[in-house]
Amino acid sequence: MNNPAITISQETKFKTGAKKARVIKTIAVFVILVGFALMVLVPFYLIFITSFKDRVEADSPLFSWWPQQGFYWRAYDLILFRDPTGGQAGFSIVLRGFINTLIVVIPPTLLGLFTSALSGYAFAKMRFPFKKTLFTILLFTMMIPGIIMMFPAYFIWAELGFIDTYIPLMVPGMFGAAAAVFFLRQFFYSIPTELVESAKIDGKSHWGIFWSIMVPLSGGALIAQGVLGFVGGYNDFMGPLLYLRTVEAFTLQLALHTFVGTHGGIDLPAVAAGTVIALVPVLILYLLAQRFFIEGIATTGLKV
Predict the structure, then answer these.
(1) Calpha distance 215→61 (Å, rounded)
(2) Looking only at Cα atoms, what is the longest distance across the chain?
(3) Neighbour tally for 102: CB within 10 Å
(4) If phi over 0 gives left and psi between -120 and 50 gives alpha, with beta otherwise, what is residue 49?
(5) Cα–Cα distance between 270 and 75 in angstroms, integer?
(6) Which range has the worst mean pLDDT, 4-13, 49-58, 104-113?
(7) Beta partners for 82?
(8) On the CB side of 93, how many CA atoms lie within 13 Å of its CA?
């Protein structure tokens, strides 16, 4: 017969070993997560702290984690209240660029989200000829690098006489984006078709079904795609660089770029201060829409 004392001892050792393994696994996961967090946060900290350094200290090869000469606000004064040449400006190029960016980004984001949602609903809940073929073509367009279409589009807009205007930056986005159509189609597809059929029996048209059923049930997904679209347009540098010529029309990214190469080279504190200022609106937007953003991404394609 088995000795009960030996059995209890073996069971105790097994539980102790399993507990140690769980502790080691937890510690390892914690260390890895902390490492990834530092990889993300340390660059942000370096940018933030550099914006308060004196230019001589920022250019020094001796690195420091803290301003050794004290905190300087010169970079923020330069970015917010002066032009790139150092003169006084009644309305700084960065603030003007921020307003220009909102003008360029907000209308295409809203209209593009609307048209993408309509397309997603059509592909998810409507029946029409060549539906699968058209959706396959739509997915194929996502594989085409944007740089390939950039120069043909430039020649078209140049022939139409829209260079140095916001038209080339705004109009294409108003027709939606393939990625947004794909994700919204997946979300709409997860909404039970029975709801749509019941609404049809009640006499609702597709337009009524879209507004009364689809939009209320997909608020998180719509906000998520809206945030992604806004951030993409907000961070766009190549488009404004290609089409805009006058400083007064510069978007925020181009306005910040004017501080690179001025003042006898790269002004690191000024560039860092501009980066911090440019990050603030995006961080505020993400904090306000965080719950909807995560919900919209996580539930896309899942049954509701």
Answers:
(1) 55
(2) 96
(3) 16
(4) alpha
(5) 4
(6) 4-13
(7) 88
(8) 22
User: Hey, what are 16's tokens?
Assistant: 């102790």
- With a pLDDT cut of 90, the percent of the chain lying above it is 17
142 CB-near residues (< 8 Å, 6+ apart): 178, 179, 182
pLDDT digit string (tens) for 145-161? 878 888 888 999 999 98
DSSP code of 245? Answer: -
SS (H, E, C) 53-106: CCHHHHHCCCCCCCCCCCCCCHHHHHHHHECCCCCECCCCHHHHHHHHHHHHHH
Residue type, 123: F
Q: What are phi and psi of 265, to 5 degrees?
A: 130, -165
Quick one: average pLDDT of 220-224? 85
- Using DSSP, state whether 237 is helix, strand or coil: coil
82 φ, ψ to 5°? -135, 165
Compute the distance between CA of residue 259 and CA of residue 82 in angstroms, rounded to an integer. 11
Neighbours of 21 (CB within 10 A): 10
